[in-house]
């Protein structure tokens, strides 16, 4: 994956807020108008819109205006870079555990052979 | 998963920085001293230590001091809450696509039946 570090920064930072994650959780169930989205939050509309704009800037949601209604939708595949980074970390970690496992197995074989010749 | 929103905030915010992600990538290959970790970065040591402390506060790394050497290790399973949240989003999204699929299939069957009776 050829992602600039900046894109991952923006994505992770966008996800590091409970209101923004709640918006994404709601949108995973389907598109919603800004008014619908804002209803569960005890927050001034400008602050709420700031969160929506932040998600839009991160490429996590898209908005479209039809008359007076602005509809917000989740961008398909928007979490892919974040998943990709986590998958890479898991692969590195598992690679390390495999190497440790090989090393311990070799060490135990060498010991078994060593103690066998001493008997 | 019973995670407080605050824990996810701290984790995502900790991951939203290129230096901190690079430290985690290095540690996925195995533990390292602070000196080794800091070497590739053109950064004053206090700033670098601030990043290590931030990762430690998020529960992503653990540090231990042995004499003058402080060793940093990745905490196993530290990414689990982040993965858990992403998995939940995927499940919600896929559930929605399945329902859409069912709806379209039903609609097409009704149309096929409807146009059949009109013929």
From TrEMBL, chains A, B:
Q: Which SUPFAM superfamilies match?
A: Winged helix' DNA-binding domain
User: What Gene3D superfamilies does the record point to?
Assistant: Winged helix-like DNA-binding domain superfamily/Winged helix DNA-binding domain
Q: Which PROSITE patterns match?
A: HTH_ARSR_2 (PS50987)
* Domain HTH arsR-type, first and last residues per copy: 1-94
Q: Which SMART domains match?
A: HTH_ARSR
Classification via Pfam families: HTH_20 (PF12840)
Among InterPro entries, the record links this protein to: ArsR-like_HTH, HTH_ArsR_DNA-bd_dom, WH-like_DNA-bd_sf, WH_DNA-bd_sf
Coiled-coil residue windows? none
What domain of life?
Answer: Bacteria
User: What PANTHER family does the database record attribute to this sequence?
Assistant: SLL0088 PROTEIN, TRANSCRIPTIONAL REGULATORY PROTEIN
Report the protein name in the record.
Answer: Metalloregulator ArsR/SmtB family transcription factor
Query: Source species, please?
Result: Albidovulum sediminicola
Taxonomically, what lineage is the organism? Answer: Bacteria, Pseudomonadati, Pseudomonadota, Alphaproteobacteria, Rhodobacterales
């Amino acid at each position: 994956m050829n992602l600039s570090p900046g894109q991952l920064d923006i994505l992770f930072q966008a996800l590091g807020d409970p209101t923004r994650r709640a918006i994404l959780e709601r949108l995973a169930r389907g598109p919603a108008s800004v008014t619908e989205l804002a209803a569960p939050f005890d927050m001034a509309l400008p602050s709420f819109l700031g969160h929506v704009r932040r998600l839009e800037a991160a490429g996590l949601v898209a908005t479209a205006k039809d008359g007076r209604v602005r509809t917000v939708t989740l961008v398909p595949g928007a979490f892919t870079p974040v998943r990709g980074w986590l998958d890479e970390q898991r692969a590195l970690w598992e690679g390390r555990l495999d190497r440790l496992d090989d090393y311990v197995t070799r060490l135990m074989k060498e010991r078994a052979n060593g103690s066998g010749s001493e008997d």
